[in-house]
């Protein structure tokens, strides 16, 4: 195979279909940047789950005097010191319980007023309205049901709350956004594949005389198809490089330059995660158009 001939044919094909080639590059770049962003978003959600679930506590809220008068869950009266001590001692016997903290009503009131200091409701709340609680840190937050089943409905217990449930809605929202990005990526990928097939078809049709001559002189199918396949692969690779640049710029300016300093409670994905995704995008960007071109040539280029 003469490499210079193949390279010249690639240059001719790219020049003849420059508009369609640019469309392929842009669509591949957008679809692969969405793919890379989705992979990083999935890793970000996993990292956030590991971080926050490790800090999750189970809160056992105890009945106070107001609850005893108004809430059916506390119909047997407010919690006594003996009941509270018994609950705390029983909790410490569970192997999944790492620590138990007792938060008094005064401490709960102080935390509430600090968090809601700008709310007008905070001014009318009094310490006797707050519930004391037992804050339980578990070694395995997934086994929350063990504590909930054992202590819910007990005398002196108002309710058992797993803080993880408060985070589930956030993670479900993030997963939903990730799925939407993947769906959009799949749509853009289909558009890119259709453009690649159409570009190969137009290129093969415009060069049917050259391919006919090559066929008459005994050129192999692989030799005839190679320029078309490489054209698609080069366009896809350029699109993949642009997708990598989009991810790098997004990490540098959007995450490191803007979000990281303003949202300090989130440990954003690092450069190691970004750099691990880039080679995958480059491989997909080169192989996907090449394979699409190979299948398209079987139909549009009779060799």
From TrEMBL:
Membrane-spanning parts: 21-41, 179-200, 221-248, 268-297
Protein topology in the membrane: Multi-pass membrane protein
Subcellular localization, as worded in the UniProt entry: Cell membrane
Keyword terms of this UniProt record: Cell cycle, Cell division, Cell membrane, Membrane, Transmembrane, Transmembrane helix
GO process annotations (BP): cell division
The UniProt record lists the keyword Membrane: yes
Entry annotated with the keyword Coiled coil: no
Domain FtsX extracellular positions: 56-160
A Pfam family annotated for this UniProt entry: FtsX_ECD
Similarity-based family: Belongs to the ABC-4 integral membrane protein family. FtsX subfamily.
Protein name: Cell division protein FtsX
Lineage of producing organism: Bacteria, Bacillati, Actinomycetota, Actinomycetes, Kitasatosporales
């Amino acid at each position: 195979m003469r490499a210079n001939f193949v390279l010249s044919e690639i240059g001719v094909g790219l020049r003849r279909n420059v508009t369609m080639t640019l469309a392929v590059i842009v669509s591949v770049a957008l679809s692969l940047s969405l793919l890379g962003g989705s992979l990083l978003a999935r890793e970000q959600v996993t990292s956030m789950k590991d971080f926050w679930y490790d800090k999750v506590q189970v809160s056992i809220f105890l009945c106070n005097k107001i609850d005893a008068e108004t809430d059916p869950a506390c119909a047997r009266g407010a919690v006594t010191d003996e009941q509270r001590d018994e609950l705390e001692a029983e909790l410490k016997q569970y192997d999944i319980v790492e620590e138990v903290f007792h938060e008094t009503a005064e401490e709960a009131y102080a935390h509430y007023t600090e968090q809601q200091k700008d709310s007008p409701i905070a001014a009318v709340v009094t310490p006797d309205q707050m519930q004391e609680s037992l804050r339980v840190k578990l070694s395995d937050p997934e086994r929350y049901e063990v504590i909930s089943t054992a202590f819910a409905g007990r005398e002196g217990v108002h309710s058992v709350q797993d803080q993880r449930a408060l985070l589930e809605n956030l993670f479900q929202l993030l997963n939903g956004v990730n799925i939407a990005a993947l769906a959009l990526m799949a749509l853009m990928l289909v558009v890119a594949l259709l453009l690649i097939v159409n570009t190969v078809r137009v290129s093969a049709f415009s060069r049917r005389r050259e391919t006919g001559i090559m066929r008459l002189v005994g050129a192999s199918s692989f030799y005839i198809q190679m320029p078309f396949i490489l054209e698609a692969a080069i366009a896809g690779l350029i699109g993949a490089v642009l997708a990598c640049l989009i991810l790098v710029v997004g990490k540098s300016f959007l995450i490191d330059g803007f979000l990281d300093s303003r949202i300090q409670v989130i440990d954003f994905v690092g450069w190691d995660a970004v750099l691990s995704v880039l080679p995958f995008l480059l491989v997909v960007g080169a192989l996907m158009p090449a394979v699409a071109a190979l299948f398209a040539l079987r139909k549009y280029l009779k060799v």
